Amino acid sequence: MKDETHEAIDRQVARVVSVGSIPLAFVVSLPEFIGQRSHSDVWWNALGIVLLLVIVSIGELGRFIPYHALRIVWMSIPILGGILAITSSAAADTSTLTSAPWAWTLEPSYVAILCLLLRPVAAVLVSIFLATLPAVSSLIFLGSVPHTIASVLPSHINNFAFVVIFFVIRAHLIRLRSAKLAAFAMEKAELEAQEQVVQREQMSAMMHDEVLSFLNTALTFTGTPPEELTEQSQRALLYLENPIPAMRPGQVDTATAIRMLQEGIHSIAPNTQVECVSEPGFLPTLAVDTIARAASEALRNSVKHAGPDVTISARIFASTHMLTTTITDNGCGYDLSRVPAERIGVRESIQHRMSSLSGGNAEIWSAPGKGTEVCVSWQR
After folding, report:
1. In sequence order, what are the residues at sequence separation of 6 or more whose Cβ sits closer than 8 angstroms to the Cβ of residue 59?
2. pTM for the full model?
3. Is domain 250-380 in CATH 3.30.565.10, yes or no?
4. Model confidence over 152-179: pLDDT tens digits?
5. Distance CA 352, CA 363 (A)
6. Number of C-alpha atoms within 13 angstroms, CB side, residue 217?
7. Which of 77, 88, 234, 325 makes an SS bond possible with 295, Cβ 3.0 to 4.6 Å?
8. Which part of the chain is CATH 3.30.565.10?
9. How far apart are CA 295 and CA 325, in angstroms?
């Protein structure tokens, strides 16, 4: 992760150097080149133009060139700058020029790249060394240092400040990126922890919905069990083998969602009258699954607690923006305020399950002797 961070930051720093060199090239370097091109050898001018083009293009090159290849390009920049500096007096008589060799104007850019190649102290020393090369070239090829070079030598030596500035920028960017990655890692860990909590809650609710309800019914049943109870018991055993089935990814169309809900209702209470209204569209599978489970728990409660002669009905509405399932019975009803805390069927399997779904909601109306209505819904 550290290497990836440094690589990304190095590409950004190189882009800053490249973009900053564009005005330098057009305002200073190219006008100097035009004025001096007839006083310098063609090969030297061509090499200077190559250096200029490489500097201004490394920002774009950094977007797609592999990092190791990009470092070779970066390394070539101060090397080309050094070659141009040490050969400046061989390619032209610098004593006759009214200003320093034009390629020397690129020095701030090619020494700034050193911050991507060397450690701070080494980069500063190399930048100072590169700044003195035109003077060394004059001593070697002319025997003395012309005034045009000697007068600007101190300012070029001070270009090591660009190295320092870009080292500071690079270090600051690395700290910012590292802090951002650390924040992302913490957020991911929190989300994973929340997901584990949700999975445990799902298991608890599912054990109640799919297993304990059927076991309780089986224990209290006398005589030959009906086919419906046998099928539900088999389904409970399957849930024990795979307690947390994976949610189906993506979305389903509203017609499929209604069919899924109808099948779930009729698997628990086959005689339930179901009224369906749908509009064309698509719904998140997670919302459909959650509502199906909550509605199934409401239906099981009606079958179990509403009384022997209860009539149960269901209404389903599905559109792109909303999914609603309402379970109604005319049974004995109950006082919501008197539901024991240990009864997780209503609180966990219905209310908490729906509140855990983004956009989910559960409403329950009931009173002694007046039946019960449970509405579970999701809204985009």
Report:
1. 14, 15, 16, 17, 18, 19
2. 0.53
3. yes
4. 999 999 999 999 999 999 999 888 888 8
5. 11
6. 23
7. 325
8. 250-380
9. 7
